Amino acid sequence: MIEISNCTKIYSSHDGSNQVEALDSINLSVKEKEFVALLGPSGCGKTTLLKIVGGLIPWDKGSVTIKGKQVTGPGSDRAVVFQNFALMPWADIKTNIAFGLELQGKSKAEREARAIQLIEAVGLKGFEDRYPRHLSGGMQQRVGLARALAVNPETLLMDEPFGALDAQTRRLMQEDLLRLHEQEPKTVIFVTHGMDEAVRMADRVVLMTARPGRVKEIIEVPFGRPRPKDFDKDPAFIELIDYLWDVLKTMQVLDGTTENETFSKES
Amino acid sequence: MGLQTATSKLTSEQIDNRWKWALRIAFYLVLIGLWEWFGRTHGGLLFAPFSETFVAWLKLISSAEIYKALWISNQAMLLGFGASVIAGIPLGLLLGRLQVMERFSDVYLNILIVTPMAALIPLIIVGIGIGVLSRVLVVFLFAFPIITVNTRAGLKNLDPTLIEMARSFGASEVQLWRKILLPGATPAMMAGIRLGLGRSLSGMVVVELLLVAVGLGALILNAMGFFQPARAYAVIIVIIIEVMIVMGIAGRVEKRLVSWKPRL
């Protein structure tokens, strides 16, 4: 459904002298309702790629199509979930969730109904009239997720959605997202730093390298859907994580930039 | 014994409050006492003790001339303040949104904020003369820079992810303004307006004291000129009361509109 072909993105400084190739000839095919994780070190372009698919930033070479049509900008077929939640602090939860619908011009009644529906779906019942500042990080991200789901997109673009959460909340959110995906599967592109998270959530893991951003390897995750019980105790699970870590480790060393990079196996 | 039981029935918060009030009253009494003493010992032609000031104030507020003066002075204040809001907010929003213009205007705006506007008053008088317009202009110049800068800051400090989020859901530029930029910049705008109001009140009095002797400024100058310091201070007290009332209302309005953010 999503075809990324030879996609290249170059960032240049004001006078054009300094050019950074954020993405170099990315080739990736995402099937309908497939859950794909983009995994890689900082600077590998995974968020850039996500935003390109979302129509938020342009690219320089190659093509990016969804169902055969070029991406020209954001659209109602795609919705983004942001790492820092991006909730409007001056609006209550219901209004935040209905934001996308409001932009589309949907009636108040419709927005209200849909918001209530989603509040239940993400487990926020009782908090409709609260404001983001009253909510914990995990709850705020539930709002972010509900907002994305409210517009009924075909594709969910998630930019390290659980990166700002503590380990326990993150784990909870991962399980909730898995459950939601099982109930109503969508095409998902999920950017993450965590190998554990990628293997837990995705059908395929796209390993990317940095400087320039390239696809290093694409690995199939052998567990089907719905995830079998205790699939994360399966030796294959651990082997896969170890394999991913081995590859990522070499990227770090070769790169020589390990100052801020910490890869945790549990994330 | 009775007092002891009474005290034990009070909460510690109530006791704290009572101490606060007692201290406050004591503080004011000390101030008034000092004022009275200083006025009686070092007073004379240019300084009046509290008691005389208080009497003069009572006389003042029961006369018509103070209200006429208030009206004259505040006319210029309202016009100048109104103009500074009408000009300052859109300009601030424009500067906040357009990066290019900002680099150019930054220096000038910062200079305007820091410049003591009172120094420009003679220039204005020479250029425009002494009339309502020059007073309005002075008030405008006092208030306009801070309103603009605060509004601009409100936009600049908006979380850029919010803008990206709105774009991702398909917001047009108009929708972006209505749903994200304006609501998000409102706290800073309100703070700027409040600060601008304070400066307007300053400007209102300063221009009258320095060069265009009408309204409240005229009353003060007149009183000092006739060596009636008590009357002059009485006028100043009236001004202080006005400022307290106006700023108090402004603060409350601001709080209601921006309950979602702490006051800047």
Number of helices of chain B: 11
Strand content of chain B: under 5%
The radius of gyration of chain B is: 24 Å
Average pLDDT over all residues of chain B = 86
**Helical percentage of chain B:** over 70%
Largest interface: A-B, 24 and 19 residues
Report on the biggest sheet of chain A.
6 strands, mixed
**Biggest sheet record of chain B:** none
CATH class of the largest domain in chain B: Mainly Alpha
- What is the correct CATH architecture of the largest domain in chain A? 3-Layer(aba) Sandwich
Rounded mean pLDDT of chain A is: 89
What fold name goes in the CATH topology slot of the largest domain in chain B? MetI-like fold
Summarize the structure.
The complex is a heterodimer of chains A (267) and B (264). Chain A contains eight helices and ten strands. With 267 residues, chain A is α/β, with parallel strands linked by helices.
Secondary-structure blueprint of this entry?
The complex is a heterodimer of chains A (267) and B (264).
Chain A: E1 2-12, E2 19-30, E3 35-39, H1 46-54, E4 61-66, E5 69-70, E6 78-81, H2 93-97, H3 99-103, H4 108-121, H5 137-150, E7 155-159, H6 167-183, E8 187-192, H7 195-201, E9 204-209, E10 214-220, H8 235-255
Parallel strand pairs in A: 3-8, 3-9, 6-7, 7-8
Antiparallel strand pairs in A: 1-2, 1-4, 4-5, 9-10
Helix pairs in contact in A: 4-5, 7-8
Chain B: H1 2-9, H2 12-42, H3 50-61, H4 65-97, H5 99-114, H6 121-128, H7 132-156, H8 160-168, H9 173-210, H10 215-225, H11 229-257
Helix pairs in contact in B: 3-11, 4-5, 4-7, 4-9, 4-10, 5-7, 6-7, 7-9, 9-10, 9-11, 10-11
Descriptive notes:
By secondary structure, chain A is α/β, with parallel strands linked by helices. Chain A folds into 2 domains: 177 residues, P-loop containing nucleotide triphosphate hydrolases (Rossmann fold); 65 residues, no CATH class. Chain A is 34% helix and 24% strand. Chain A is built from 8 helices and 10 strands. A 6-stranded mixed sheet of chain A has the order 6-7-8-3-9-10, sandwiched between helices. Chain A has a 4-stranded antiparallel sheet with strand order 2-1-4-5, with helices on one face. In chain A, strand 4 and strand 5 form a beta hairpin. The two termini of chain A are 29 Å apart. Chain B folds into 2 domains: 31 residues; 200 residues, MetI-like (MetI-like fold, Orthogonal Bundle), CATH 1.10.3720. Chain B is built from 11 helices and no strands. Chain B is flat. Chain B is an all-alpha fold. Classes of the chains: A alpha/beta (267), B mainly alpha (264). The interface between A and B is medium-sized, with 24 and 19 residues.
